[in-house]
Amino acid sequence: MANEARPCPCDIGDRFEYGDLGHEVQVEHVKAYVCKPSTSTEKAVIVIQDIFGWQLPNIRYMADMLAANGYIAICPDFFVGQKPWEPSDDWSTFNDWLKTRDASKVDREADVVLRYLKEQCSAKKIGVIGFCWGGTAVHHLMLKNPELKTGVAIYGVIKYFEDRYSLLHPTFFIFGENDDYIPLEQVTLLEQKLKQHCKVDYKVKIYPGQTHGFVHRKREDMNPQDKPYIEEARNDMLSWLNKYL
């Protein structure tokens, strides 16, 4: 039973009724979803899942959107077979669940996927985007991985990265104004610290009235008041990738 007294602030939103356009592959020890554009390209984007896992239709929708915009998109199972969070799970157990799915311990899987993209897909310029848990993983990879060109961290939880602001690559941080899980004071502090310590290009943007998950968990047709911000954030994400890839 879900703990109704402490519901998960990271609710699944609108689960897209969506049949994906790509296919699943096995990349060494990691399963992954891949979608390629209609014309050949040397540009690729790794898409990192939220807590609801790599098979969530919403995540695959975002991967397919990248492919439609000219990128090879790959969404690996960064939980490596471990069960994703379910909306019915007891929120009081979340921290224990998270301990075995550490967003700062994705380096091995990232290296495997990078090797696949270079060797099997002929990719030369590779970026990464991530949502929620995946946004936190993007922040980590932007601090650590020399092979990636750029990243977009979409409502990645900042509190796990206090005092870690020396980014290696241009990074775009997307947040919602009304995110119950990421207080605006944390976003303000992030911006201040990046200003002090970051030597590469970065951008922090807050979207008015938006909640956690708005970029990939809200359907525009069901949330007309949010549609302009959903579309703006997606376009901003693509513009950032186009600039650096």
Strand arrangement, major sheet = 1-2-4-3-5-6-7-8
Strand content: 15-25%
Main pleated-sheet profile: 8 strands, mixed
Shape: globular
Which H/E pattern describes the elements?
EEEHEHHEHEEHEHH
Topology, number of strands:
8
Helix content: 25-40%
Structural class: alpha/beta
Task: Round the mean pLDDT to the nearest integer and report it.
Answer: 92
Low-confidence stretches: 1-5
- What is the count of helical runs? 7
End-to-end CA span: 45 Å
Rg: 17 Å
Q: Keywords, please?
A:
alpha/beta; 19% strand; 33% helix; single chain; disordered N terminus; 8-stranded mixed β-sheet; 245 residues; 8 strands
Protein described:
It is found in: Cytoplasm, Cytosol. Belongs to the dienelactone hydrolase family. Its main location: cytoplasm. With 245 residues, the chain is of the alpha/beta class. It has seven helices and eight strands, in the order E-E-E-H-E-H-H-E-H-E-E-H-E-H-H. Strands 1-2-4-3-5-6-7-8 form an eight-stranded mixed beta sheet, with helices on both faces. Helix 5 (184-197) links the parallel strand 7 (171-176) and strand 8 (202-207). 40% of the residues are buried. Residues 1-5 have low confidence and may be disordered.
Question: How does the SSE layout of this entry go?
Answer:
Blueprint: E1 23-27, E2 30-35, E3 43-48, H1 57-68, E4 72-76, H2 94-99, H3 107-121, E5 125-131, H4 133-144, E6 150-154, E7 171-176, H5 184-197, E8 202-207, H6 214-217, H7 227-244
Parallel strand pairs: 3-4, 3-5, 5-6, 6-7, 7-8
Antiparallel strand pairs: 1-2, 2-4
